[in-house]
TrEMBL record:
SUPFAM superfamilies, A to Z: Amidase signature (AS) enzymes (SSF75304)
Protein name: Amidase domain-containing protein
Keyword field contains Signal: yes
Signal peptide span: 1-22
Keyword Signal (UniProt): yes
Residues in Amidase domain copies: 54-490
Any Pfam family the entry gives: Amidase
Keywords: Signal
């Protein structure tokens, strides 16, 4: 297992110290626990905190907690230098800076960064590979002034190598641990991003989703996750599974912080031109912050998908908590339409053709990604399979089968079977969730945890997961608000109003992290 590269920071210590001499002394105490973008920016403004101090705090916490949580694969050896630069820029020009300026962010290990960090999807097969440029989303984060703190762990290959590997496991970082209940699942594949956000190892984090990989870890780790409409955020230089379903989105402790990140990363990218140009029509003038409304539930029509999703009795702890949430939404002005069902839901969940399509799309997408790397130990899916076969035996590490890789390698492009599968998913989506939402005039559907992710995935639809409660063991669970393409504004209104009215989230018990 690769260790964190914290020792690389020694060479920048002198530089950072010299740069810090030009700053005022920061003497007022700052509470780092559950720190938000707003509280940090206020501390920057009143000079009770610097970006350097903030990064130093997170690095210290990562050193302390990561050996138990396995949430971070690498820290950025240039993070302190970036932070010092942000502090200098702030002194020169406070006005017109993005809210993420000087804010440390951890990005999932499948999101490319053209720096000293690796981009490996948690696999040794890509260790040492060099991307040709920053990913589209990282480029936008840098333009906003964010500090790239490091790479968050993930379920290796976004859980696409094997269906035998547990959620949160990867060769480079080991098994990710749920910070609330050590025996509980962290879910995946953006497990490290969610664990890190939950345990306060960074201000904000970034994840990716093909089917459930933002929504599920957010729910299981009591954080907020936004799965954007496919194409709203660029996927260029992101290790792919399916360009038809892949999307990049924030995982944070609050809805507002997630919206700050979303605002920074949406928009057109010439390297993902077709998808981002098509989705750009959904981006509201002036961005998403204006939808953070305390009365965001007022006059909203929210549909509860009871059958097939709420698979627990009303008198159970989960059932009672959700009934309380529904009553609260009513009190806040929402119209709750209960006992709704998506047409052909069994076919959507079991016979949509998603697996057939993803299996073929992965080989094509990963081979194209590998071909664009400046350098790489592997250049094809076949190379990855061969590497893993040899490496697993040589290193004698615990690994899992490569059945999904093998199935994908046997495919030969988009044939009639795959085209039929893709067409079937489009028809199921049109006749299912789209028809239901339009006929019932819904602003959102609501489901528990990540039960609805396949419905959202096959149609490229958005969803937001918000902390909803904790079970008898202390394990978190979430509530998911989903909608049609471009529904982000109304989903943000609903999610923010719900979050502010319930205030469910609490940090993990400290003893569980030690």
């Amino acid at each position: 297992m690769a260790s964190l590269r914290l020792h690389h920071f020694s060479f920048v210590f002198t530089l950072v110290t010299l740069l810090s001499l030009s700053f005022p002394l920061y003497t007022h105490p700052f509470d780092f626990t559950e720190a938000t973008v707003d509280s940090i920016q206020e501390a920057f403004k009143n000079r009770s905190l610097s970006s350097v101090q903030l990064v130093q705090h997170y690095l210290s916490l990562i050193r302390k907690l990561n050996p138990r949580l396995h949430a971070v694969i690498e820290v950025n050896p240039d993070a302190l230098t970036q932070a010092a630069r942000a502090d200098l820029n702030r002194e020169k020009n406070w006005l017109n800076q993005h809210r993420l300026h000087g804010i440390p962010i951890l990005v999932k290990d499948n999101i490319g960064t053209a720096d000293k960090l690796n981009t490996t999807a948690g696999s040794f097969a890509l260790l040492g590979s060099v991307v040709c440029r920053d990913s589209g989303v990282v480029k936008k984060l840098r333009e906003a002034g964010a500090v790239i703190l490091g790479k968050a762990s993930m379920t290796e290959w976004a859980a696409f190598r094997s269906d035998q590997a547990p959620n949160g496991w990867c060769a480079r970082a080991g098994q990710g641990i749920n910070p609330y209940v050590r025996s509980g699942s962290p879910c995946g594949s953006s497990s490290g991003s969610a664990i890190s956000a939950a345990a306060n190892l960074a201000t904000v984090t970034l994840g990716t989703e093909t089917d459930g990989s933002i929504i599920c870890p957010s729910a299981f780790n009591s954080v907020v996750g936004i799965k954007p409409t496919v194409g709203l955020t660029s996927r260029s230089v992101v290790i792919p599974i399916s360009p038809r379903q892949d999307t990049v989105g924030p995982i944070c402790r609050t809805v507002k912080d997630a919206v700050y990140v979303l605002d920074a990363i949406v928009g057109y990218d010439v390297y993902d031109a077709k998808a981002t140009k098509e989705a750009a029509k959904y981006i509201p003038q002036g961005g998403y912050l204006k939808f953070l409304k305390l009365d965001g539930l007022k006059r909203k029509r929210v549909g509860i998908l009871r059958k097939d999703f709420f698979n627990f009795p009303k008198n159970s702890l989960h059932g009672k908590v959700f009934e309380q949430h529904f009553n609260l939404m009513r009190k806040k002005g929402a119209t709750i339409i209960d006992n709704l069902q998506i047409a052909n839901i069994s076919a959507i969940l079991d016979q949509s053709g998603e697996e057939v399509a993803l299996t073929t799309e992965f080989k094509m997408a990963i081979n194209e990604y590998l071909s664009q790397l400046t350098s790489s130990p592997v250049r094809s899916l076949a190379d990855i399979i061969s590497f893993d076969d040899n490496h697993d035996k040589e290193e004698k590490i615990k690994e899992y089968d490569q059945q999904q890789f093998l199935d994908s390698e046997r495919t030969n492009g988009i044939n009639s079977t795959v085209r039929n599968a893709i067409s079937n998913m489009a028809q199921l989506s049109s006749r299912g969730i789209e028809t239901l939402i339009r006929e019932k005039r819904l602003d959102a559907i609501v489901t528990p945890d990540a039960t609805v992710t396949s419905v959202l995935a096959i149609g490229g639809y958005p969803g937001i997961s918000v902390p909803a409660g904790y079970d008898e063991t202390g394990a978190p669970f979430g509530i998911c608000f989903g909608g049609l393409k471009g529904f982000e504004p109304r989903l943000i209104e609903i999610a923010y109003a719900f979050e502010q009215a319930t205030k469910v989230r609490k940090p993990p018990p400290f003893k569980s992290l030690l």
